[in-house]
Amino acid sequence: MNIAITFRHLEASEPVKTYANDKVGKLQKFLRQPMRAKVTLSVENKQQRCEAEISAGSSHFVASEAGDDLYASIDRVIDKLERQINHEHGASIARKRGAESAGAFAAANAEEGDLPADDSGSLTLALRHREADRYRLT
Fold this sequence. Notes:
By secondary structure, the protein is an alpha+beta fold. The protein has two domains: 2-96, Ribosome hibernation promotion factor-like (Double Stranded RNA Binding Domain); 102-135, no CATH class. It is built from four helices and four strands. The chain has a four-stranded mixed β-sheet with strand order 1-2-3-4, with helices on one face. A hairpin with a 2-residue loop joins strand 3 (47-56) and strand 4. The relative contact order is 0.11.
């Protein structure tokens, strides 16, 4: 695990550096390969900004956030990165299990005549309603 933290237009403080290092380090548990992270903390137009880039094997994740509080910006960036990592992990699991993509599912159901097929988006809406009805508790 390699984490590089850069400060731009503000003085480097050890508590902020430790906080960012700890938060980014916790993302390693979601990744299967060792990660390399670049975190940039800066001040732009009176906004505290945090940008992070994470690479783990062939996966790359990027997030940035600006706000009044640097610690809050770091937390929001970590949340965004965690969401991206979980989404990518779920997609790879679905591919391994041979799941059908949403587009292929919609096309197959439109060919069967179960659902209306037009360009207005009613096919997608009909699919959502049908799936919602399937799981609705009565």
